[in-house]
Write a structure and sequence with these properties.
Elements lengths: L1 E3 L18 E8 L4 E2 L5 E8 L10 E8 L5 E7 L10 E8 L6 E17 L4 E7 L3 E7 L8 H4 L9 E6 L3 E3 L10 E3 L18 H17 L10 H10 L6 H14 L1
Parallel strand pairs: 3-10
Antiparallel strand pairs: 1-9, 2-4, 2-11, 4-7, 5-6, 5-8, 8-9, 8-10, 12-13
The structure holds 2-acetamido-2-deoxy-beta-D-glucopyranose (6 copies).
Length: about 260
């Protein structure tokens, strides 16, 4: 979309301590460049830091996985601005995928895109568009390997290997009043893509890991997915009771929201 007008001025970036809370970051917790056992509930986990920023400029995760030398291919998007009003610092999006229940090698590509604006120096127009930066890794599924460890994936010695992308919400430009349909400001296109991410801020403890596993299993069981061992009715009741514990609500609600929209 093209709009006439001048890009007026860059707003001030508040110093230092405020910057982190104005950065929305998405970290790919799992999978990594690693080998995992085939599973009918293969976990794909993203962490979203400062998810409340997502209400503006429509940040979206795009995820694609292609089998190397094979025909399996999945492609999904997740709109971070939809759903719950989120006051938590970190939100986990978990997808227990059914497709990786065989041995293979896979290329995972993902991106965090957002609506941005930039000034065309020649025409003096403000352009609006979505900006992407895709990142990839390869993972392998092989019988007899160790299952992914959600807690270990965020350990201090491995967390920095997570692929991460961030949007700095302080990079605002004023939009001329003539274009006020889009609000008083827009997110300026960076001249260089942001490289400062902090995936090590995300920690998954054992109770969060158990909640995520339980939520993925319960989604798979609700869909009668083949090859999944489902809890007995008694432990199902126990599991749904634990859903209402406030500490775990975001993990579980977000987990099932994503699982239902993607599975
Ligand atoms: C992925 O792991 C393999 C084997 O450990 C290694 O050779 C390769 O360089 C790694 N790739 C990346 C992008 O880290
Ligand atoms: C993918 O390949 C496998 C064997 O390599 C075949 O059985 C399957 O039908 C193929 N699936 C599609 C969607 O083409
Ligand atoms: C989130 O909060 C805003 C303002 O507080 C409200 O307008 C909106 O309806 C809420 N959205 C949801 C999904 O609860
Ligand atoms: C547009 O102009 C600004 C300021 O004059 C300059 O910093 C920037 O590099 C220019 N951008 C392009 C793409 O030429
Ligand atoms: C891996 O395990 C599955 C299920 O046990 C089996 O069907 C398959 O043949 C095994 N693959 C190899 C290469 O051994
Ligand atoms: C585990 O993590 C969850 C979610 O991040 C948090 O709410 C909970 O307080 C943590 N539990 C402990 C014992 O640290």
């Amino acid at each position: 979309m093209l709009f006439l007008g001048l890009l007026l001025a860059l707003s001030q970036v508040p110093c230092c301590w405020a910057i982190n809370s104005r950065t929305l970051e998405v970290d790919l917790v799992l999978p990594r460049n690693d080998t995992y056992p085939p599973s009918p509930i293969f976990p794909i986990i993203f962490a979203v830091q400062n998810p409340s920023l997502a209400e503006k400029f429509q940040p979206m995760i795009t995820l694609q996985v292609h089998q190397v030398g094979g025909n399996l291919s999945i492609s999904e998007t997740y709109k971070l601005w939809e759903g719950y009003n989120d006051t938590s610092n970190t939100r986990f999006l978990t997808w227990g995928n059914s497709k990786f229940d065989f041995e293979g090698e896979f290329k995972l590509t993902w991106d965090l895109s957002v609506d941005r604006c930039y000034m065309d120096n020649k025409t003096h127009e403000v352009n609006f568009g979505r900006f992407d930066e895709f990142e990839s890794l390869f993972f392998t599924t092989k019988n007899g390997t160790s299952p992914p460890d959600f807690v270990a994936a965020t350990d201090d010695d491995t967390c920095d290997k997570a692929l991460a992308q961030a949007i700095n919400y302080a990079d605002l430009s004023k939009v001329p009043a003539s274009e006020s349909t889009y609000g008083p400001s827009c997110l300026a296109a960076p001249t260089t893509l942001p490289k400062t991410t902090s995936p090590c801020n995300v920690k998954i403890n054992s109770s969060a890991a158990a909640s995520m596993s339980a939520a993925m299993t319960s989604t798979a069981c609700a869909r009668d997915r083949a090859g999944v061992t489902c809890p007995t009715p008694t432990s199902k009741n126990a599991a749904s009771k634990s859903n209402s514990n406030t500490g775990d609500v975001w993990i579980l609600t977000t987990v099932s929201l994503l699982a239902y929209s993607l599975a």
